[in-house]
Automatic annotation (TrEMBL):
Highest taxon of the lineage: Eukaryota
Topology versus the membrane: Multi-pass membrane protein
TM segment ranges: 20-41, 53-74, 86-104, 211-231, 251-272, 292-310
Residue ranges of the region described as Disordered: 407-426
Protein name as annotated: Transmembrane protein 184C
Keyword annotations of the record: Membrane, Transmembrane, Transmembrane helix
This protein's GO CC annotations: membrane
Parts forming coiled coils: none
Biological source species: Rhynchophorus ferrugineus (Red palm weevil)
InterPro entries, sorted: Ostalpha/TMEM184C
Length: 426
């Protein structure tokens, strides 16, 4: 009898998980805050303790807001292909906030905790792109839809670049722009660790004989490319994305990931030039810039948590009567990064294939283009007995459908035939 009640209680976790979360968080606050105040009073409650306390208040507000939204998505896990990526994005605020607060509390360990935060930036950008792709592919064939659209031009300052062909090439180029940041950001973080071991990193120093300015430049260019690809993708699919209100989501991602990066670079530059100087003679420029960055992130994450609550709300996914996945499936999906590995491997193969084709003088995307939205798919039969060599066409009476070029020499071109009626095609 008791065993059956316990089992039933566990199966009803959706009813008690939220009260349990509130009770545990309130208990942690009641225990931690008095202990911190007692410890600070023993140390004289200096400026560092004041910074930690103020930042901790903002973190204490930001974390439960985000965790609450994550729990709601887990409870109403009705669209795994979308919510998996939303949950990963929502984890950004707790990771950033706790990370910055730990770096502020333990300055000597800030190098390591900040590196974990930097790596998660790339993961967030990737998941946002996958969220948009899954949303669009659920409603349509995205590549086919883009093929019928007018050409999307590059925007300033890259307006001189050749256009990305609408369709598969456009989607792949946007993916490449995101995935390169997913690879480069952890790579530069690992390089910075190695440089710190050999004392050649020069954190916060804009000198030519240290690695810091070069890694900052690489990260800056990589982030710019990722953001540019997001903007291009949004520009091409603005009408299709309108029902899910993409603009607030774009602003949330841009504000948290990109603004925090440029904020840190700006603070380091001002401290290095002396525009911001430490009031405490025991502080050096590095500790000051790191403390300022971590303190500001703690405050900004509180605002980001509120913005995420409205931008990535769980309410559109509340569907009573819909069969939902288990809590364990939702939780494990958050940490399963096999999709990232597959995408990186796939696009490394695509890039390698593209380079090989270009070396041999062949275009990677060979579907013909016309002046209107249908000429790339259908062209009138012009009385030709056969298409151009290597060109693959259908065998209809009055028109031909162009499917692209045949790249293999083992497949001869398909011959077209005259209409059985003997009449000339229109």
């Amino acid at each position: 009898m008791c065993r059956g009640q316990c089992t039933d209680f566990l199966f009803r976790w959706k009813l008690w998980i939220r009260p349990l979360f509130i009770a545990l968080y309130a208990l942690a606050a009641l225990v931690f805050v008095p202990l911190f105040l007692v410890h600070s009073l023993k140390n004289g409650f200096n400026r560092h303790d004041q910074e930690v306390l103020v930042a901790g208040i903002f973190v204490g507000v930001a974390v439960p807001i985000s965790l609450w939204e994550i729990i709601q998505h887990v409870i109403h896990y009705t669209q795994p292909k979308l919510q998996k990526h939303i949950i990963r994005i929502l984890w950004m605020v707790p990771i950033y906030a706790v990370n910055a607060w730990l770096g502020l509390t333990y300055p000597k360990a800030s190098v390591y905790v900040d590196s974990a935060r930097e790596c998660y930036e790339a993961y967030v950008i990737y998941n946002f792109m996958k969220f948009l792709l899954n949303y669009l592919n659920a409603e349509m064939d995205l590549e086919a839809s883009l093929e019928l659209k007018p050409q999307v031009k590059h925007i300033f300052p890259l307006c001189c670049l050749p256009n990305w062909e609408m369709g598969r090439e456009f989607v792949d180029m946007c993916k490449h722009g995101i995935l390169q940041y997913t690879v480069i950001r952890p790579l530069t973080t690992a390089i910075s660790f190695i440089c710190k071991i050999f004392n050649v990193y020069g954190d916060g120093q804009f000198k030519g004989n240290v690695a810091f300015p070069y890694l900052i430049a690489v990260n800056n260019l990589s982030q710019f490319a990722a953001m540019y690809c997001l903007v291009m993708f949004y520009k091409a699919n603005i009408a299709e994305l309108k029902p899910m209100k993409p603009l607030p989501k774009f602003l949330c991602i841009k504000a948290v990931v990109f603004f925090s990066f440029f904020q840190g670079v700006t603070i380091a530059f001002f401290v290095y030039t002396g525009a911001i100087s430490p009031s405490d003679p025991d502080d050096d420029g590095l500790s000051l810039s790191t403390r300022l960055q971590d303190f500001l992130i703690c405050i900004e994450m509180c605002l980001a948590a509120i913005a995420h609550h409205y931008s990535f709300s769980y309410q559109p996914y509340v569907r009573p009567g819909t069969r939902q996945q288990s809590c364990c499936s939702a939780f494990l999906a958050m940490w399963d990064i096999s999709d990232v590995q597959r995408d990186i491997q796939e696009h490394i193969g695509i890039v390698g294939s593209s380079i090989s084709r270009r070396i041999r003088g062949r275009s990677m995307y060979s579907i013909p283009r016309g002046t209107d939205e249908f000429s790339n798919l259908i062209s009138p039969r012009a009385g030709q007995s056969a298409p151009a060599p290597g060109f693959y066409q259908s065998d209809y009476d009055d028109f031909v459908i162009n499917y692209g070029t045949v790249t293999s020499t083992s497949h001869p071109p398909v011959q077209t035939h005259q209409s059985q009626t003997g009449q000339k095609p229109v």
